[in-house]
Amino acid sequence: MTLTRATLGKLTKRATKDIDIDGNAVRIQRPTPLEHSQYQMALVDKDGKWNATNLNDAILLLVARMWIDGEGERLFKDSETKQLGSIDLLFYQRLSEACQQFTRTSEAPEVLGESEKTIVSDSPVESASSLVLTSGKGG
User: Fold this and answer.
1) CA 119 vs CA 14, 17, 23, 26: distances in Å
2) How many domains are contained in the chain?
3) What domain range is 122 assigned to?
4) Confidence of residue 105 (pLDDT cuts 50, 70, 90)
5) What 3-state DSSP class applies to 103?
6) Is residue 91 part of a domain?
7) pLDDT reported for residue 3
8) Most buried among 13, 28, 64, 96, using CB within 10 Å?
9) What are the phi and psi torsion angles at 77 (to 5°)?
């Protein structure tokens, strides 16, 4: 079926990914193109050069926009990103890594909006290898 303006609405359902971080169930959603662009633009200055100063704030905002509850609602508004700075550092690092990985993946779920599952463990090797995304259909 060819997409038309009338059928475009089905593309607004964002893919989600369920993550287990040390026994804590977390759900993130893939960012919209606008959110992804804003994240990338925050990483460069007005001259187009890498801006490491903005890195932490950009990642905080990305995590706030991607972290959702079971109903698909954001846990943090844009204005509440500093609250993320008060959570456990290791938990936040693992969550932010998972969010950044989910923005970079070129592997779209086989079914639009299909939830994916990732386990993040204490082992750096296991954590890195567990970020490989699967479609949930044996692959």
Assistant:
1) 21, 11, 9, 10
2) 1
3) 15-126
4) low
5) helix
6) yes
7) 79
8) 28
9) -80, 165
